[in-house]
Design goal:
Blueprint (H helix, E strand, L loop, with lengths): L2 E7 L3 E8 L4 E8 L8 H15 L7 E6 L5 H14 L4 E6 H10 L4 E6 L3 E6 L4 E3 L5 H4 L5 H13 L5 H11 L3 H9 L4 H6 L2 H6 L4 H17 L12 E4 L1 H5 L1 H10 L4 E5 L3 H11 L2
Parallel strand pairs: 1-4, 4-5, 6-9, 9-10
Antiparallel strand pairs: 1-2, 2-3, 6-7, 7-8
Helix pairs in contact: 1-2, 3-13, 10-12
């Protein structure tokens, strides 16, 4: 019975799922995150070898479908595929972007606009097979509108520029015990400032009762819609769906912000894996 190994690889975590041709899941686990763009060949090979060891020799895939953050060019995808073949020489291995994985997860073989709102943000126009157009994310410095990093950046800036209501500002400073110096160190000198900024998002979720906080989140989602979704030709005629922790946990505000710009959000999931499993089960039939 054919076995397919699916990987949803993000910078924070990599989720691995093995399915057989009947659709049964024979293995499922999470490993440390990996950005395909930043990881070198030795790091990638070592990570894959650890996965093979964890799966055991009774769980050897015939096909591997890897969807990764940072898999943005043929060269990077080739690096990942070479590493996969080095560990599983008997398997057919393909590496694709996490954005294509998201599109397949949300829409399977129908067209639509697929969006990611997590630590970062991204989107694409999907034609039912491949990504037709992508408004570039540009990362947390130049883009990532609506993401955890963008929300955290706005929260921190408003706190230290005294735009937050006093009760919220005092609550924020007491909660995290961060001085201005601490903030500047974490944002400008740490290795993962985007992750630090996104780590502050739970505070926003807990304080949505405050009109200022609600408006802050709504504005960030509006920025995402205007600067990304609205840029796709025929956007108002296509279904729009989201995946990612930010989209999932702020789904009501996200739907409201999108509706205000004339878009009805179809579905919102907390991650792409369930949809990818369904996609690959159907693809194998």
């Amino acid at each position: 019975m054919k076995k397919t190994l699916i990987a949803d690889a993000g910078s924070t975590k990599v989720e691995w799922v093995m399915i057989d041709s009947s659709g049964k899941t024979t293995a499922r686990f999470v490993e440390e995150g990996m950005n395909s763009l930043l990881a070198n060949a030795d790091e990638v090979a070592s990570a894959f070898a650890a996965v093979r060891k964890r799966l055991g020799e009774e769980n050897v895939p015939e096909e591997i479908c890897f969807y990764g953050a940072g898999c943005a060019t043929p060269r990077i995808c080739g690096k990942i595929e070479e590493a996969l073949r080095g560990v599983w020489p008997e398997a057919k291995a393909t590496a694709s972007s996490d954005l294509l994985g998201t599109a397949r997860s949300l829409f399977a073989d129908t067209p639509g606009i697929a969006c990611i709102l997590g630590t970062g943000s991204n989107s694409c126009l999907y034609d039912g097979k491949q990504i037709a157009t992508n408004v570039p994310s540009l990362g947390y410095i130049l883009g990532d509108e609506g993401s955890g990093a963008a929300l955290g950046k706005r929260l921190v800036a408003d706190a230290f520029k005294n735009h937050l209501p006093e009760v919220i500002r005092e609550k924020f400073l007491a909660r995290y015990n961060l001085s201005l110096g601490d903030i500047l160190e974490k944002v400008y000198r740490s290795s993962a400032p985007n992750k630090f900024l996104a780590s502050l998002v739970p505070f926003l979720k807990e304080n949505l009762w405050n009109p200022y906080i609600y408006s802050l989140v709504h504005q960030e989602f509006t920025h995402f819609v205007k600067r990304n979704i609205a840029m796709y030709e025929g956007a108002h005629t296509l279904p729009v769906s989201f995946t990612g922790s930010i989209a999932y946990h702020f789904s009501d505000i996200l739907r409201e912000a999108a509706a205000a710009q004339g878009y009805d959000v179809d579905s919102i999931t907390d991650g792409p894996m369930e949809g990818l499993i369904a996609y690959h089960i159907n693809a194998g039939k």
